[in-house]
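Task card 7
Instruction: Convert sequence to C-alpha cells.
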Amino acid sequence: MKKNLFFISLVLCSSCNIIGAGTLSTFQQWTLPVSKEMLDREVADLYKTNPEYLIPEKWKYLDTWADSGFGSLNGKIFYFKENPEEMYYISYFEENPDFDTQKDSKNATISVRAVNNGSIDRKWRTVDDYKGNSMEEKRINNRFHEEIILKLEKRMGVKSKKQNFWYEFFTRN
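Output:
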C-alpha cells in the first residue's frame, strides 16, 4: 500500500511540474559539464558574436519575465528571425548533487522554458501548450539544439548530454 501511495504521489508531482526544472515547465533539458558561471559567460559572449539573437525593438515589450515573478530564473531570451520568427525564453541552473557538502557543481542544465512568436495575444507558450503537438515540440527542441546548444558546445569544447527523465513516460502520454 505504501509503495502504491508513493508511486501515485510521484506521478502527481511530476505531472504538476513539481519535479524537474523549477516552477515553470520545460522543454528538453541539456546538461553541460561546466559551472553555471562559465555557461553564463559563454551565453553573454554568444550574444556578442551573434547579435541576431538579441530581442528586436519591435518585441521588447514581450520581455515581462521579471515583472511576472520569474526574475529569479535569471532567464535569457533568444530571438530567431528565420522562419518561423520566434523567441525562446531559456534558463539554466547548476546541478548540485552534493548539496550536503556544498561542493561547487561542474554541471549546468539549460532548456527552453517558453516560446513566443509575436502573435496578437502576446502569449508565451510553455511545453504544456504543445501537448498533443509533438511535431512542434520536437521542432522547438531541435532548433534550440542546433542553433544554441551546438554553438555553446563548440565554444566551450565540451559535449552536452540530453536529459531523459524516468517519469516522462507518464507525463508525456
